[in-house]
Design brief:
Layout lengths: L9 E4 L3 H12 L4 E4 L17 E2 L6 H4 L12 E2 L5 H11 L6 H21 L3 E3 L1 H4 E3 L5 E3 L5 E3 L2 H15 L3 E3 L3 E8 L2 E9 L2 E6 L2 E4 L8 H8 L7 E2 L8 H8 L4 E2 L5 E7 L24 E3 L18 H9 L6 E5 L9 H4 L6 E4 L2 H8 L3 H13 L35 E13 L2 E2 L6 E3 L5 E7 L16 H16 L1
Parallel strand pairs: 1-2, 1-13, 2-9, 4-7, 13-23, 14-20
Antiparallel strand pairs: 3-8, 5-8, 6-7, 10-11, 11-12, 15-21, 16-20, 17-18, 18-20, 19-20, 22-23
């Protein structure tokens, strides 16, 4: 019998940053592309919509970045340290404790900047991220830190709007409300997908299928199965559609597991706001990322981690799970009046935020339901242990240490001046680190390393880069690099 006719050349499952990048690369080659998005247009974009848009790239400093970023009048008084491939590679190795795949890592660090500039040439807009990555010094100048300097204009919403516009201009067929559930095969080759829509089930066939449909973080049962007990209680930061459907479909077809299926990206997230899951209006405003300046305590009034272990970009993605392990999966970030003006305005001044304020530590403890004597002792011992000979400097790892248990390695500031503030936080899950096994071009492989013909992967479904933690901005970076690679050969 003759083969069934093809609906298109390439089907891409997932309409986030990686999926659109793959679509652009395929369309550039003259391939006909259908992109399937589980959400309707008002819920589209996957996790990428919910990001701040930060993308970790290599560069030689501001002079290079000025060539292609959106102009900013603050450039004249801005310092942007270079960020090299060696530094990028070392950061990945450090935060993953060496579990990052070296071949995938090499591709990422060597191609990320050229890939972003390629997207910029297609019409995506990028800028320096002053509000999240720069410190405004007393003289009004700006110093960038932490290796993460660039993001797209308009955050995640702007990122998806730009991608969508470019795709439509290229003739890419975007189909909303299509939740892919199965892979179609002909012999030993993947030839399409089955998807559910508001009007029923459909089948679409193509020469190649690229999977960019995210992980399983929105599925409480799978979170508990792979991440462990208690993870069903985490709050979903991003899209509600990342249920693991296509991971399951690929595994059933014989795909190998790639990366770490037992850890994820998780952050400190507003604990008590009723609308604290998949909130497209507030997106990143529910994170609480000024924690290195203060202390974090649990319901027993005890500290349980080193708030100043490193810059936020290297600890924020793993501290959510530490909150989850605490009684009630809740903790409080504590600051005093001196520190309060230094907190991120977009996160800590949001209406309805989970915060309590009091003139004394005892009163604050009563308001948050913590034993006053316990919290007073925690703050007293913390203050007494600070190395006050070291100056406090949030722009560098200042080694201003609190030598207590657990220690605070940097940015230990005395909590002495009322009023005092307590911000309630819980665990917000972003994406899971486990994905599919692939080569560096995005070809999906079996456990034995054999290629599954016609099947490719990119984005959060590609396993191997991250484990336990990740450097901020490297998720969107990996999405564009491996999305482009998959789209270039599919």
């Amino acid at each position: 019998m003759p083969a069934a006719p093809l609906d298109t050349d390439v089907i891409i499952v997932g309409g986030g940053n990686a999926g659109f990048t793959a679509a652009h690369a395929a369309a550039e080659r003259g391939r006909r592309v259908i992109l399937l998005e589980a959400g309707e247009a008002d819920m589209a974009g996957g996790n990428s919509f919910y990001t701040a848009g930060a993308t970790r790239i290599t560069h030689s400093g501001l002079d290079e970045l000025r060539e292609w970023l959106e102009p900013d009048e603050r450039w004249a008084t801005t310092v942007v340290p270079p960020y090299t491939a060696d530094e990028y590679r070392a950061d990945l190795e450090k935060v993953t404790e060496g579990r990052n795949d070296p071949e995938l890592t090499e591709v990422l660090v060597s191609e990320v900047t050229s890939t972003l500039r390629w997207l910029q040439g297609k019409g995506l807009k990028y800028r320096l991220m002053y509000e999240r990555q720069a410190y405004e010094r007393p003289d009004g100048s700006y110093l960038f830190w932490g290796g993460l300097h660039v993001g797209n204009v308009g955050g995640g919403e702007g990122l998806i709007a730009d991608h969508t516009r470019v795709a439509q201009e290229s003739g890419i067929d975007i189909r909303y409300g299509h939740r892919a559930t199965e892979l179609l095969v002909d012999g030993d080759r993947v030839v399409g997908v089955r998807a559910t829509t508001g009007e029923g089930e459909v089948e679409l066939r193509a020469e190649s299928v690229i999977l960019t449909a995210g992980g399983f973080e929105a599925n409480p049962e799978l979170r508990r199965e792979y991440l462990g007990e208690g993870w069903e209680n985490a709050k979903v930061r991003g899209t509600p559609y990342n249920q693991g459907d296509m991971l399951r479909a690929a595994l059933e077809l014989g795909a190998g597991r790639g990366g770490d299926w037992h850890t994820c990206h998780s952050v400190q997230w507003d604990a008590f706001l009723p609308e604290n899951e998949s909130n497209r209006e507030l997106t990143n405003r529910l994170t609480r990322q000024s924690y290195p300046l203060g202390i974090i305590v649990n319901r027993d009034g005890e500290r349980f981690l080193d708030e100043g272990a490193d810059f936020r970009n290297y600890t924020y993605a793993k501290y959510g799970k530490e909150i989850l392990r605490q009684p009630g999966s809740v903790a409080w970030q504590i600051f005093d009046a001196k520190l309060r003006p230094m907190l991120r305005v977009e996160e800590y001044d949001m209406p309805g935020i989970s915060v309590e304020q009091a003139d004394t530590i005892e009163e604050l403890a009563e308001k948050i339901g913590v034993d006053p004597a316990a919290l007073v002792e925690t703050v007293r011992s913390f203050n007494a242990s600070i190395d006050r000979d070291k100056p406090f400097d949030p722009t560098v790892k200042d080694a201003r240490r609190a030598d207590t248990t657990p220690p605070k390695s940097n940015w230990a500031a005395e909590l002495e001046t009322g009023p005092f503030y307590a911000f309630g936080v819980t665990c917000g899950i972003t994406f899971t680190f486990g994905g599919l096994k692939s080569d560096t071009e995005g070809r999906v492989l079996s456990e034995s390393g054999d290629e599954i013909a016609g099947l490719y992967v990119a984005g959060e479904m590609l396993g191997g880069l991250f484990s336990n933690n990740y450097p901020g901005g490297s998720g969107l970076a990996a999405g564009v690099v491996f999305g482009r690679r998959a789209g270039a050969i599919a």
